[in-house]
What does this fold into?
Amino acid sequence: MTESGDEMKKTQFEVNGVLFEADGISWEYSQQEGDNAGRSDDGTMYHDVIGTIYKLYYDFNDFRDEEATSILIDLLEETDCNLKYYDLKEKSFVTKSMYVSGDKISAHYINGEFYADPFQLRFTSNKVE
It folds into this structure.
């Protein structure tokens, strides 16, 4: 966890005003189809695009901040948070309403120091845009 500043790195993200840094980021832009989408009898696909759901994947490979880990775990209980992140499509930082999901987080204390095993958090937009 770092202090929020004017210049964010592309691997940093801010959740409800708290700045975090990940080791990696991936983006997914998932088209959402309406009721009129589908294939016809001749196999032609008809799209009824109603918008896009944005998904962000943050990888933490060598995370050693126990306090930040606790805050990230608390986010898993949130049904809505404001995520400020670098959007590859927009080529700039944007803020969206998201919910959070993640994998199991395992951690160890070695010689009194905190080490988390690699884990991932996923943010998904709450509404279709």
